Amino acid sequence: MNIGKNLRILREEKGMTQTELAERLHCTQGFISMVETKNKSISIDLIFKLSKILDCSTDAIITGNRR
């Protein structure tokens, strides 16, 4: 399971930069970078917020499965 890699792929598919995603989440670009490089874990609450922003399922973020 590589949430960071899945997040990066989903973010890029939406044409969103780390900075743009950070602004929507009210966090820093550095935090997004750390999550995407597996240096920072995230809460389930944040996964739910990301799924709404990226218009995807929580499963897509957690497992990369985008059925």
Helix segment tally: 5
State the share of residues found in helices, binned by percent. 55-70%
Main sheet properties: none
CATH homologous superfamily (4th level) name: lambda repressor-like DNA-binding domains
Give the total of domains: 1
Verbal overview:
With 67 residues, the protein is mainly α. The relative contact order is 0.22. It starts with a helix and ends with a helix. The mean pLDDT is 94. It has helices at residues 3-13, 18-25, 29-36, 44-53, 58-63. It has 5 helices and no strands. It has one domain (3-61): lambda repressor-like DNA-binding domains (434 Repressor (Amino-terminal Domain), Orthogonal Bundle), CATH 1.10.260. 64% of the residues lie in helices and 0% in strands.
Describe, in short, the structure shown:
Helix content is 64%, strand content 0%. The protein has 67 residues and is an all-alpha fold.
Could you list some keywords that capture this structure?
67 residues; mainly alpha; 434 Repressor (Amino-terminal Domain); globular
Write the layout of secondary structure elements.
Blueprint lengths: L2 H11 L4 H8 L3 H8 L7 H10 L4 H6 L4
